Structures are given as C-alpha cells and as structure tokens.
Amino acid sequence: MVDSPGGSLDDDLAAAFDGEFDGEIADEDGAGKAQEHEEDEPQGADDDSDGEDGGKSSSGSEVDLDDLEDIADKGFAEVETLKRVAGIEDRPAKRMKMVRFGVDDGSPSKRKAGAAGAGPSTSAAGSGGASGSGGGCQHPVWVFGLCGVCGVSKESLESSTGDQYGQYLSASAAAAHAGDDSARAQAGTVRLKHLHASKEVEVSRQEADRIRRETVSRLLSRRRLILILDLDHTLLNSVHMNEVGEDAAPRLAELQHREQEANLGPRRLLHCLADKKLWTKLRPGVFEFLDGLRDAYEMHIYTMGDKTYAAEVRRLLDPTGRLFSSVIAKDHSTTATAKHLDVLLSADELALVLDDTEVVWPGHRRNLLQIERYHFFPSDLRKWRADGTALLEQERDESATDGALATHSRVLRAVHSRFFSQEDPSLPPLDERDVRNVLAEQKARILKGVHVTFSRCWAQDKDPHKEPLWQLAEGLGATCLPAYDPAITTHVVAAAGGTAKVHQARGDGKAVVTPAWLQGCAFRWERLPEKDFPVPEPSQTDGRGGSGSGGGKGSGGAVGSKPSAADELQMAMAAAGGGGGGAQS
C-alpha cells in the first residue's frame, strides 16, 4: 500500500503551522471563558462549603492537575503496553505529524544545549540565525513575520541586532525578487507560498538545507523519486468557452454523449468547468499514467495557472486526493515567469520534471522530460501559431496505450529502475546517485551511432555548438559533424532542400530529414523512421522546411518555424489555465 501524500513534507509543515495556531486559539478561548465565569460568579458562592480544616474548599478550577496527569500517564502507559503485546502499530493521521525545526540531530546533548539557551550559534549571523529573545534560537521558520520556534518578530530582531540582520533581510528580499538562485541561496529565506493562503511562511537557508537532507533520506528509504507535473498541454488542454467556435460545439456535444454512454464516471476526459467558463480535455492515458507511477514517484503539480484553476483540475485528476503531495500554482512560484524547484524544498538530484515548455525551467533543464504539446482545441493551436490542425478538427485523439503519456510512463519507470538498481557495479552508492545523470544516460541511447551533418539550420556566422538543434542531437546520443563527410555522415538534417549537402547525401544514399525528425525522436524516445520526415525540394516548400507531425503519433499541429525563447515563454504564460492563468504582457 502506497503511503498517503498526507505524510509528505509539505503536509508535515502545514500540520505544524496549523497545530501551532490552533493551540494558541484554543488557549485564548479557554482563558477568556474562565475569566467570564469568574466575573459572573457571585462573590459569596463558596462561603457555604467548608473543608475538613474549616477553610474554604477548592473550586472546580483548582483541582490538583498533578494527580490528573499521573492518572493519565498511567492509563496511557497501560494502553501502549497492550498495543505492543498485540503488535499494533499506529499510523499517523493525515496532517497531524509533529515537525521539529532547526534540529540537526535528536541527541539529548543537542536538545539540552538548545534548551539551555547558552547563547547564539557561531553561525547564526551568517545564516540568518541571529539570536533574539529566544536565546540560542536559529529562527528556522517564520510565520506572519514571527519566528515559529521562539516567537520573536523580524522587526524587533532587526532593531535589536542593528544593521547586520537588516541587511540580511534586505538581501533575501532582493534575491527573491530578482529570481537569482545563487543570490537566494546566499541570502537567507525561502518563502513557501503553497503552504499557507497568506503566503507568509518562510524557512531559513540553513533549515531549507536540513529539510532537503531529510527529504533525500526519506525518499531513498522508500525507493521513491520526485516527479513534478505541468498541467496545460502536458496532462490536458483547456480553452475558454467563448473560444469554441460553432463548428466545434457539435463535436464536443457528441464526445460528451459518447462518454456518458460509456459510463466512465470520474474517469471521463472531457469536462465543462462552468465556474471557470472553461472546456478542459484531459489527455488520453492520464489516469493510467498517474496510477502507474504513484508507487515509484512522489508527485507534485506545478502550473502557471492560478490556484483556483489548479485546485479544480486536481479534483478532476485525483478525485480521492491521494496522488499529489502538493499543488504549486503561479501564485506560489518564487518568480513570475519561470518555474523553480526551490519552492518545493526538493532534492534536485532526485527530481524529474514533465513539461511541454523547456524555456520555463531555465535552471533545471537537466531535470526535464519535454513532452509534445497536446493541442485538442483549434483555438489553442492558433495561440501557438503552429501549423496543422487540432485533434478536435481531425476528429481523432492520441492513443491511451501508445501516446505521449504512455511513452513517458515507460521512460520514467525505466529511469526509476535504473536509479535503484543494485546489480550494476558501475553505479555509485545509492546516496551519491543523481537521477539527472540516469535520465541523460537513457536519452543518449536513442540516436547512438548516428552521425549528423546540418544544412541551412542556422546562419553561417553562428557557433553551431550553441545551437539548440546541435545540442538536441548530442543529447540524443548522436555525433554532430561540422561538414559533410561521405565516409562518416549517416544523416543530413536540412531546413530546406536543394543544397549541395542534400544533393550529395542523396547521391550517396544517406538519410536526409527535416529538423522535426530530431524533435520527434526526442518526444517519442526512439529512433523514428526517416521516411516520415522527407525534405521537400525548393519548389515544394516555402523555405521553412517543416513537414511531419513532430511526435509521430500526433498531438495536433505540425512543426513549423520555431518561435524564439521569449515568444515561446509569452505564449506559455498566456495559455496557462486556458488562457486566463498567465501573466499579462
């Protein structure tokens, strides 16, 4: 039985914060009610009852608590003894586990030293752990501007410690605003916006590092890795209702009718989200994909859509609430135009990302499995200025068993199996392995033995080693050649026909393909048939040199001219959440 996501780090932290404030509220309410009771009680109410010694008897609020605690302790000990004899082991309830902040180990000497408050740690100033009214507290977590351990406020701490702590806070805020990973690491806090609606939960850099170490230990002991999943164009496609044309409406109604007749229940793929005014089409095979990976990966949603959209889609994908450990929306991201793993306090060396857009992961491209975009609705395809027709227009859909999600499910299972393999002596010890290296190793098998020469794929004054196509081919295991060599070259990748390289390669019997062949091999994780990506002659093309579907199995739309990174980022942000979830340009 897989562990419930309720035992994940995010839930542990949230439970600690919720429990902390619930206890305070309960204490305040109890104190207030006791005070009201005392004010309402007549002053002579106790005069009629004398104790054995002739004095006043104790009131109900003055019962000897020590006696009650002794009785409770004895009862608890007896219950625990009986449970041990019976072999009963309690499982912690969801969101009810204790989290200890700022403790590197649980040794009694460490706890005693921390409780004694002998003074600030020598590393406090350097890591944001300046000592305040809490003695030696390192201030590992901040909630609403207050230390979650000792209760000191940032404002008072800054006043008492002078400019040093003030500069630390300023540097942290500047780093978070700038989106600079290295600066953020040197500055001191990470804001965990997805843990609290007010976005006022932060942990210190030292505490974030400790949590990451614990995350690694926890995941490795359970033989699990981390998988971050994008929503739009990866697991589904959403558009606004007013973008669905009159010609598409009957097709959607027919599809809805077929799903109702099939009695798919919560596993139907087409949804009308009336509150969001959206049509949402889940990608075929999505439920099989999620169910198949739940034991091997701790899964998180990360979308540039807003949090209400993310919550609604999570309900569609995970009706029982057991698949995803957390949901990160654009409201929670540390930067407005990019995604970062720091928001999860995850271990980068154990994390993989499935997303259709590479440009939104500038600092984590080695973690990325890029999936072909899912374009079901025609209006969505037009937003991306892509060639071809959407799947709805073609009156077909991806295969649930051999489509994009099924392909990546097989890859992810292979990566997991390789990472935890105990049979290969060439692998480093488990605690030193990096899933990014395993992913790169798997990808490099796709075009192993292929030698590629490029023709008219970039301007002659460009450095070919910095070109995306060159880097893509090398990542797939191919060897790239700066010039055509009939004795070595096996493939010519050409953006247009009619060039000397194309004519020579054809005369030598070499394969001549469009750049879409490389991208298709990357999407499908296999070497695709070269005949499906022919390079047309100059009279047959408009110069863009694009034909073929890109992914081989068709996700809607053909590969034409690739937009710039800036244009692609703007389109991804605009399309998030069905068109209403991204930043406005």
Write a concise synopsis of the structure shown.
Strands 10-9-5-11-12 form a five-stranded parallel β-sheet, with helices on both faces. A four-stranded antiparallel β-sheet has the order 2-1-4-3. The chain contains 18 helices and 16 strands.
The helix content is: 25-40%
At CATH level 3, the topology of the largest domain is Rossmann fold
Helix/strand structural class: alpha/beta
Number of helical runs?
A: 18
GO molecular function: RNA polymerase II CTD heptapeptide repeat phosphatase activity
Biased composition (Low complexity): 114-125
Biased composition (Gly residues): 543-559, 576-585
Subcellular location: Nucleus
Structure description:
It is a single chain. The strands form 4 sheets. This protein has a 5-stranded parallel β-sheet with strand order 10-9-5-11-12, with helices on both faces. The protein has a 4-stranded antiparallel β-sheet with strand order 2-1-4-3. A 4-stranded parallel β-sheet has the order 14-13-15-16. The protein folds into 3 domains: 1-28 and 130-216, no CATH class; 223-416, Rossmann fold (3-Layer(aba) Sandwich), CATH 3.40.50.1000; 445-552, Rossmann fold (3-Layer(aba) Sandwich), CATH 3.40.50. α4 (154-161) packs across α5 (163-178). The chain is built from 18 helices and 16 strands. Mean pLDDT is 76; it is low at 17-28, 36-61, 92-101, 103-135, 163-187, 541-552 and 580-585. The protein is globular, with a radius of gyration of 30 Å. With 585 residues, it is of the alpha/beta class.
